[in-house]
Amino acid sequence: MQKEGQFHIPSGCAIAGLFCKDGRRVSGESMIDSITVMHDRSNGLGGGFAGYGIYPEHKDAYAFHVFYDNTAAKESVEDFLTQHFDIESLSRIPTRKTSGITDAPLIWRYFVHPLPRMLQDMEVDEREYVVRCVMKINAQYDGAYVFSSGKNMGVFKAVGYPEDVGRFYKLEDYAGYCWTAHGRYPTNTPGWWGGAHPFALLDYSVVHNGEISSYDANRRCIEMYGYSCNLMTDTEAITYIVDYLNRRQGLSLEEVANVIAAPFWSTIEAMPEPKRSQMTYLRNTFASMLITGPFSILLGFSGGMMALNDRLKLRSMVAAEKGETVYVASEESAIRRIQPELDRIWAPRGGEPLIFRLNEGVKF
Amino acid sequence: MAINYMVPEYEVVRDPQRCIACRVCERQCANEVHSYDPELNCMRSDETKCVNCHRCVSLCPTHALKIVKNNDTFKLNSNWSMQAITEIYREADTGGMLLSSMGNPNDYPIYWDKMLINASQVTNPSIDPLREPMETRVYLGKKPDHVERNSDGSLQINTPPQLELNVPIMFSAMSYGAISYNAHESLARAATELNTYYNTGEGGLHKDFYQYGPHTIVQVASGRFGVHKDYLNAGAAIEIKMGQGAKPGIGGHLPGTKSVGDVARTRMIPEGSDAISPAPHHDIYSIEDLRQLVYSLKEATAYKKPIIVKIAAVHNVAAIASGIARSGADIIAIDGFRGGTGAAPTRIRDNVGIPIELALASVDRRLREEGIRNNVSIVVGGSIRNSADVVKAIALGADAVYIGTAALIALGCHLCRSCQTGKCNWGIATQRPDLVKRLNPNVGYQRLVNLVNAWQHEIMEMMGGMGINSIEALKGNRLMLRGVGLNEKELEILGIKHAGE
Questions:
Q1: Mapping DSSP to helix (H, G, I), strand (E, B) and coil, where does residue A68 land?
Q2: pLDDT attached to residue A11
Q3: Interface pTM (ipTM) of the complex?
Q4: How many other CB atoms sit within 10 Å of the CB of residue A279?
Q5: Are residues B59 and B159 in the same domain?
Q6: Is residue B246 part of a domain?
Q7: B414-446 pLDDT, tens per residue?
Q8: What does the mean pLDDT of chain B come to?
Q9: Is A274's CB within 8 Å of B154's CB?
């Protein structure tokens, strides 16, 4: 049987996220609690979490989380890291024995800073440098996979049900202002840890429920810009598109949403100028990055979270607020579980981005 | 020995019980197949002249006629077919080159028919175009590389000139001269109503049709027939014709018999003279010369119109397209070896060029590998026969398609492949006024509109089935295709998996 990354895997899923606008940090426990309710939306073949603001003591370093199949892979990647980065610290990521989580690879964490000399030689900015290094390890180092590479954030994922994954990684020991979670229901048995979600690059992390029908159009487009879609999953392609549009083209997240879940032409035509020509421009210029088919995604990034549905809203997604905390999940039950009393709960419209950011003055 | 007797390919079968000798067939046949015998009060046929255009069959009021393949045969031979032998007789007779029309009719693989389209089941929903929006709009032209901002932070609209199409189907180049005034009028009006484009071909633009300019692509070919400043500025885009699928490597042919009256005037050539375009453009012997012509045309039109470069699908098409994508051209049109023509040397039509499916797949992949796919749009033609071909072309990577033969069939063409004779009984590929008037442009334009509307509905149904509600998400989406009965190499070139994989 082919392994993950050798063919395109459709999958259905559950997603959940919470975000504290006031920067209050909450333990990963509550996110585990929330996603547990949606157990039946996953099938035990992948679960994961992303937490933001979890490494305040290393907040200026890129936190690399890496899976290794064996020590040989670890040694060669560590050679590479030493040549390209100043390593502030390194350690095994703490885990606990959990029934339901088996065949764990070696899981290591590195807090690193790009070497200024190398940066200068490559004549790229720091973030581009990190992207290229991560891409190189993932594409060229057999048995090694960098699955998290942002600052003051981290992804924790595995093959298993999300609640087991959360306990395996001892997420109760981490506190963040934003958490997203994912339970995977792939339609095959990939059994590879790297294939679980969230999928992350730099501080962007994506959890995604859906099966995008535009996948190969999106993949073949984004691969032109130096990304290689090694996992062949929708989430990976979405993450690269967001990175390309937001970081490299400098589009705002609202504009990114208007590319990937573009309004219908009929809607655009009814818009007043100059909005109409701005929207036409985005849709025409980045036509191949339009994503069709059902999806609900949560995009985590430093200081914020974006929730977005496909334009027909073919996947369930609800949002809610209580005080300074916002919640988004595939099902209302997942929100009520951790916050029974809500100020407001609503279903965002298809294609309408919800973007939450830290309140002014809150810094991480 | 009557060695110049050619065994007719077809036999005219007339049912004497039905025939009332009304002589409609006689009047309808410009090839003079039918004649009336007053002595016996019956109709006779000279089958040697029959091209099997089905005009008489269609108009016979008593359905007394049918045209069947002639059973008369030479001694059967798998190597020396009747056609091979007959062609030798004809060439030995005249010393002339064999001419034919329309596309390569021979038994080469049709890759469209070896690809199958996907549909959603369970894991994602199909989308119902009767109940949900389903978008087929396409913009053709170069896309900006970088987003730039105005001082107020808004997006700078730095998009080079584009063509906007409601449906990714355009009418391909067919010159006024090769086809009739009424055929051109039908195409121009249909393109306007459909919000797409038709293409003048290399014969210039008749004064009457300047009004359809916003939906016209004006062509500049190696003969430069009918090219002047007003002409260039009349259209929505300019197409440089480097080659044509039906006859790669040579220029256009218009027999003098068709170069009459307004046709000659529009081309700016003497009446009755053969209009044979030079094989190459004599100002383009290399890619850097093409760049100069592209920019000359842009200068002449104030950089307001996209420039299309049309090439025939030939062996090295991917490298050629890569050169064109860097030449300043906005759109590349690729014409496959099945593409039609009003006149071409038979040997060239039947033996030169490659299938459009393979050419398209290679060009799209090559441009992506080089990271220049957004420099140009890709339009393919030759031959797109139905909406499924359109869907497959777009999934392979095309932005839009050109249809020529299909459009003519909608106008009544029966593919008798005799356009070069100028005696088209359907009023399409002729300049004889008595024949031209058989094509009513009011009817013709409506039939073209109907055809494209029907295809659009079918495209939307197929897209919806795949769970795709906008055509840009289909473009280059090769996972939506699977091959059947293709070998590894063919699958590799097409960039698709085999059915069952």
A1: strand
A2: 60
A3: 0.91
A4: 21
A5: no
A6: yes
A7: 999 999 999 999 999 999 999 999 999 999 999
A8: 96
A9: yes
> Which whole number is the average pLDDT over A320-327?
96
Task: Let me know if residue B433 belongs to a domain.
Answer: yes
Q: In what order do the strands lie in the sheet with B307-312?
A: B169-171, B400-403, B377-381, B331-335, B307-312, B237-241, B216-220, B198-199
Per the structure, the count of domains in chain B is 2
> Which element (helix H / strand E) includes B290?
helix B287-300
Please tell me the total number of residues recorded for chain B in this structure.
501
Query: Which residues, including other chains, have CB under 8 Å from residue A342's CB and lie 6 or more apart?
Result: A320, A321, A322, A327, A335, A336
Looking at the domain assignment, is residue B420 inside a domain?
yes
Residue that the structure tokens 């269609």 belong to: B58
CB–CB of B155 and A278 under 8 A?
A: yes
Nearest Cβ partner for B472 among A225, A282, A290: A290
SS3 at position A200: strand
Residue B176 shares a structural domain with residue B51: no
Residue B79 domain boundaries: 10-96
Please indicate, yes or no, whether residues B244 and B319 belong to a single structural domain of this protein.
yes
DSSP secondary structure, B18-87, as one string: T-----HHHHH-TT--EEEETTTTEEEE-GGG-----HHHHH-TT--EEEEE----PSP-SSS-HHHHHH
Q: Hey, what amino acid is at A245? A: L
Residue A16's pLDDT band, with cuts at 50, 70 and 90, is very high
SS3 (DSSP) at B140 = strand
Q: Which of B142, B159, B154 is nearest to A278 (CA)?
A: B154
Alpha carbon of B72: minimum distance to chain A alpha carbons (Å): 54
Give CA B143 to chain center in angstroms: 26
Least confident residue range of A38-47, B16-25, B295-304, B437-446? A38-47
Residue B300 domain-assigned (yes or no): yes
Q: Answer yes or no: are the C-beta atoms of B315 and B249 closer than 8 Å.
A: no
Instruction: State pLDDT tens for residues B230-257.
Output: 999 999 999 999 999 999 999 988 989 9
Joined tokens for residue A140: 């060229």
| Residues B310, B222 contacting (CB under 8 angstroms) | no
Q: Flag whether pLDDT at A1 surpasses 70.
A: no
- Give the nearest partner residue to B477 out of A187, A216, A281, using CB atoms: A216
Angle, to 10 degrees, between the axis of helix A215-222 and the axis of helix A234-242?
50
Distance between alpha carbon A23 and the CA centroid of its chain, in Å?
20
Q: What are the pLDDT digits (tens) for B254-272?
A: 989 999 999 999 999 999 9
A272 touches chain B (CB under 8 A): no
Of A265, A287, A294, the CB nearest to B124: A294
**CATH at B480:** 3.20.20.70
Cβ-contact B305, B215 below 8 angstroms: no
Residues from chain A that touch B163, judged by Cβ atoms under 8 A, are none
Compute the distance between CA of residue B310 and CA of residue A71 in angstroms, rounded to an integer: 56
Verify that B244 and B316 share a domain, yes or no: yes
Instruction: Answer yes or no: do B320 and B421 share one domain.
Output: yes
- Domains along the sequence of chain A with CATH: 11-357 (3.60.20.10)
A207 Cβ partners below 8 Å, 6+ apart?
A13, A15, A17, A48, A50, A180, A181, A182, A197, A198, A235, A297, A298
Statement to judge: residues B434 and B323 lie in one domain: yes
Pair B46, B144 in one domain: no
Helix (H, G, I), strand (E, B) or coil at B15: coil
Question: How close are the terminal C-alpha atoms of chain B, in Å?
Answer: 62
Q: What is the CATH number of the domain that holds B78?
A: 3.30.70.20
Does B485 lie in the same domain as B412? yes
